Amino acid sequence: MAFTYFFRDLQTLELICDHVIPDLLLKPAIEIWDAGCATGPEPYTLAMLLRDRMDSRQFKNVMIQATDIDGSDLFDKIIFEAEYPREQVQRIPAEIFEKYFIKIENKDYYRLTDEIRGAVTFQKHDLRTMNSIGREFGLILCKNVLLHFNEAERIDVIGMFYDSLMAGGYLAMEQTQKLPAEFKELFEPVVSNAQIYRKNE
Ligand SMILES: C[S@@+](CC[C@H](N)C(=O)[O-])C[C@H]1O[C@@H](n2cnc3c(N)ncnc32)[C@H](O)[C@@H]1O
Asked: Domain total for the chain?
């Protein structure tokens, strides 16, 4: 089910901002894979948080590849248009909302600015194929997806994420998604109060 909302799991997002983004800012390009992105609030939240911490020149180097199995076949259009109804945007912190959303005339919808939209691309992708979409990601975010997979599938997907990260890249999952014991030597926990890991160099 594609349940999602803007600024979901603020604790993990803030920890990503404090512990991951400063490191990613040192790289020439910031490539992020949001796996299981649903209709877009998660990758767009990340884009807004990044833009808030960067100048426009740095932000041009941000590429968020959002993927989802997308059984409805609607996510591509929704994410491309980046227009969300009032009830989906009303909990966004006011100072962020005012900067990055524009009211659509004659409609109770709000559109993300072109700069934020431009940082996110979408493609359909099934994690169960175990095929990666790239090799040198600085951050892979996969939240509230793997809980639907069995243990063997989870291990295979996390192994595929490992291969898809650059050395020193980061993997973030939801609070309840613990890293399987098989990966203890391959990743280091970044914090004690969220599931954020750094790939060992
Ligand atoms: C609960 S939503 C999570 C959305 C977002 N990550 C969040 O935390 O708000 C789970 C998403 O996982 C997607 N999903 C389920 N199985 C998948 C698979 N095999 N490959 C890719 N995406 C999948 C669903 O389509 C859905 O959009």
From this structure: 1
